[in-house]
């Protein structure tokens, strides 16, 4: 409200009849202070739904004109959507491996719902999926596909996700190759942009940590690479910014922790995508008081300049 109301006080429970919500949702109407009224639902509002709310202002604004007594507005909740991504394949030992992944959703999702959406199989046998129990709800929930068996020959696992049982219209599947025990090879290569540009080379087996990797991995356009070994993954950091498509070569001298070497030279063109021009505020808003030192902080990437538009809002138009 623009002006404080004597009929409102902090945390005062109000009569439910002053606020009508369609479709109906159980909840309570509360005054947060003498200018703010909140509707607090008993449970989360239905996703992807438009609600019409009508507030009876006559209850706490005196002498209000009859044509302004009912204040009607609409809100629409987010439609729930989600996708599944997997990261690097890692090893417990030579016989058993695991694959980490994440579920990202457009709206907050609880852990119980997330667990019902994803399944994984190897040779038609269901695999155990361990979710991060520390995250009871959120928009990103981490999980691990556990107890992936490594056979003598190559195999694959199938990951399925389906939201129909939860009223979510998303489904899909993905297959991940699991190299055989005697097949020390490269599973995948991924590039990452940001302040520190790097690439990840995911091997089928843990990498021997004591070996020197200089000269065994080369990247076109980079004279020197710095390396970090993390289980089955080698992270390679170029000495300067790399752009466009460049050739990555991994030579046969690289050893696994079991003493196996790559059977063939790996060579592939990889792309470092240049970040798209973008600008964003560091926070949702900035309050600028009367001061000679006014700053609005923002981040920009691949821009030579930005246009700033300042709109002055006069004090008599500010509610509080």
Annotate the secondary structure layout.
Layout: E1 12-14, E2 19-22, E3 27-31, E4 37-41, E5 50-56, E6 70-76, E7 82-91, E8 96-110, H1 111-115, E9 118-122, E10 125-126, E11 129-131, E12 137-149, E13 155-162, E14 171-178, E15 186-192, E16 198-203, E17 217-219, E18 225-230, E19 233-238, E20 244-250, E21 266-272, E22 278-281, E23 298-301
Antiparallel strand pairs: 1-3, 2-5, 3-4, 5-6, 7-8, 8-12, 9-10, 9-13, 11-12, 13-14, 15-16, 16-19, 17-20, 18-19, 20-21, 22-23
Description:
The structure is a single chain. The protein has 320 residues and is an all-beta fold. 2% of the residues lie in helices and 45% in strands. It contains 1 helix and 23 strands. The chain has one helix spanning 111-115; strands spanning 12-14, 19-22, 27-31, 37-41, 50-56, 70-76, 82-91, 96-110, 118-122, 125-126, 129-131, 137-149, 155-162, 171-178, 186-192, 198-203, 217-219, 225-230, 233-238, 244-250, 266-272, 278-281, 298-301. It is elongated, with a radius of gyration of 28 Å. 14% of the residues are buried.
């Amino acid at each position: 409200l623009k002006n404080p109301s004597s009929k409102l006080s902090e945390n005062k429970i109000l009569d439910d009849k002053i606020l009508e919500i369609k479709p109906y949702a159980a909840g309570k109407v509360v005054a947060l202070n003498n200018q703010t009224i909140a509707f607090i639902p008993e449970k989360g509002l239905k996703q992807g739904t438009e609600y019409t709310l009508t507030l009876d202002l006559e209850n706490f604004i005196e002498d209000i004109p009859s044509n302004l007594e009912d204040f009607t507005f609409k809100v629409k909740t987010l439609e729930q959507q989600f996708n599944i991504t997997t990261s690097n394949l890692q090893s417990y030992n030579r016989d058993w491996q695991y694959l980490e992944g994440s579920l990202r959703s457009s709206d907050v999702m609880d852990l119980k719902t997330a667990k019902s959406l994803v399944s994984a199989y190897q040779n038609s046998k269901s695999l155990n999926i361990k979710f991060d129990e520390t995250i009871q709800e959120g928009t990103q929930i981490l999980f691990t596909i556990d107890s992936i068996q490594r056979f003598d020959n190559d195999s694959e696992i199938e990951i399925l996700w389906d939201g129909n049982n939860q009223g979510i219209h998303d489904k899909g599947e993905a297959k991940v190759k699991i190299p055989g025990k005697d097949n020390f090879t490269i599973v995948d290569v991924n590039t990452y942009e940001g302040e520190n540009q790097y690439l990840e080379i995911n091997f089928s087996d843990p990498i021997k940590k004591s070996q020197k990797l200089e000269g065994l991995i080369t990247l076109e356009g980079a004279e020197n690479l710095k390396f970090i070994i993390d289980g089955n993954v080698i992270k390679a950091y170029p000495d300067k910014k790399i752009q466009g498509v460049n050739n990555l070569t991994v030579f046969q001298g690289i050893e696994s922790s079991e003493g196996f070497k790559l059977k063939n030279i790996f060579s592939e063109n990889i792309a470092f995508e240049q970040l798209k021009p973008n600008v964003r505020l560091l926070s949702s808003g900035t309050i600028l008081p009367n001061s000679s030192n006014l700053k609005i902080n923002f981040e920009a990437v691949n821009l030579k300049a930005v246009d700033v538009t300042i709109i002055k809002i006069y004090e008599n138009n500010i509610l509080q």
